[in-house]
Amino acid sequence: MLGADMPCTYLVYEAGDMDWYKQALEIVVEMIEWVLGQPDPSKFYLHWSS
Length: 50
Description:
0% strand
């Protein structure tokens, strides 16, 4: 259910070359900032999969 409190798990680990993921996260942050700057940010959804 969208917007409801749902259990989740975060996994953080150190690996070799993670430059691609770092760049992808930087792009996601830019997109989030853009959405938050829109007149009605509640019309947007974000899904991240890696």
